[in-house]
Each structure stands twice: as structure tokens, then as C-alpha cells.
């Protein structure tokens, strides 16, 4: 290999590595909690987040007990279903028995990949705004997620995203998905402040 060709290859590789590292650092910085961030921005963003998390689309699958909720009125799930040991329904009646990978428009049964309840530790029903905010950043109550993982989960997970495409007769969260994602980043990057 000629010296000129080797130098060119080395330069291209170096630029690629620098660019990749820059992109990775940018993505990580975008979702890190900054303790001294702008408190007012953080609190305003948290209010938008709460509107989504307290909507039926989220609360129905984040019960504090063993029975999921359903519908915009958040009534107890019909058919006598319960959480089960794996948060996927009981021994005989698993969530996936009725809830498939997409909404069933003929039977009006909602569906998304890995349909099931959030773990009991992530039960949000009955929590105050303060308790819910604390739970979001507590790894013991958020599925062991770092701030970066939380942003990814809440902004990319197919089951979470289903909330904005819930099918007929179900109201999506009151905050559009792009605004929710922006609010989540804004909240975390400005200190994850919670109203006291």
C-alpha cells in the first residue's frame, strides 16, 4: 500500500471515529440529569410529562394493584384478568391471548408488541405528582433505568408508542408524541425537578 493511500485511509478512519464519538457524546448529553439546570424549564416540562403519564393510556397499564384498567374511564379490566407472576396475565389467561402485536380493529381489542402490565414497582395509580416524579428517576421504581434509558423507553418502546395510536374509541395522551419526547429531554437535562 502506498504511503499516500495509507495516509488517506488513516485520515478517513480518524475522522469517522471522531464523528462517531461526537455523536455518541451528544446523544448521552441530551438525556443526562443536570442538577443545576434551569428549574423553571424543568418544572414546565414535568407538567407536560404528567399530562401523558396520568392519561388512561398510561395509567391503565400502570396499576398499583393486580388488575389492569381499561377504557378512557379506567374501569377494571373485564374478563377477570389479573397481573400474574410475570405481569403478562394469569396462568391460563395471558395478555397475549387477546392483545396481539397491533390493534385488532374488527374486535376493537388494542395491541402492541410485548403487551402486558408494567411491573408492580412501576404502579402509578394513586401517586401524587411528587411521588410519580420521584418514581420516574428511582431505579428501584422505573425498571432499573438510567435517565438515558428512560428517554429511550418512553420515546421509542413500541408498547409506549401505542398510546398515540390506541385505535378507535380510545383517546391518545393530550400531549403529542414529539412534544412529549422534547419535554422528557427538557425535564431530565434541566435537573429533573419535581413540584413540591
Automatic annotation (TrEMBL):
Residues 1-25 form the signal peptide. InterPro entries: Multihaem_cyt_sf (IPR036280). Keywords: Signal. This is Isoquinoline 1-oxidoreductase subunit. The lineage of its organism: Bacteria, Pseudomonadati, Bacteroidota, Saprospiria, Saprospirales.
Amino acid at each position: 500500500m502506498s504511503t499516500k493511500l495509507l495516509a488517506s485511509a488513516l485520515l478517513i478512519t480518524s475522522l469517522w471515529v471522531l464523528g462517531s464519538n461526537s455523536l455518541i457524546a451528544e446523544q448521552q448529553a441530551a438525556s443526562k440529569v443536570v442538577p443545576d439546570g434551569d428549574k423553571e424549564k424543568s418544572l414546565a416540562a414535568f407538567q407536560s410529562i404528567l399530562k401523558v403519564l396520568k392519561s388512561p393510556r398510561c395509567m391503565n397499564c400502570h396499576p398499583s394493584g393486580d388488575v389492569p384498567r381499561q377504557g378512557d374511564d379506567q374501569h377494571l379490566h373485564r374478563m377477570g384478568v389479573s397481573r400474574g407472576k410475570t405481569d403478562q396475565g394469569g396462568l391460563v389467561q395471558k395478555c397475549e391471548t387477546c392483545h396481539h402485536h397491533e390493534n385488532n380493529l374488527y374486535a376493537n381489542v388494542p395491541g402492541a408488541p410485548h403487551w402486558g402490565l408494567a411491573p408492580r414497582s412501576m404502579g402509578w395509580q394513586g401517586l401524587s405528582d411528587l411521588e410519580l416524579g420521584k418514581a420516574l428517576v428511582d431505579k428501584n421504581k422505573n425498571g432499573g433505568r438510567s435517565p438515558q434509558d428512560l428517554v429511550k423507553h418512553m420515546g421509542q418502546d413500541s408498547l409506549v408508542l401505542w398510546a398515540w395510536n390506541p385505535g378507535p374509541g380510545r383517546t391518545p395522551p393530550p400531549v403529542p408524541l414529539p412534544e412529549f419526547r422534547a419535554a422528557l429531554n427538557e425535564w431530565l437535562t434541566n435537573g429533573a425537578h419535581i413540584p413540591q
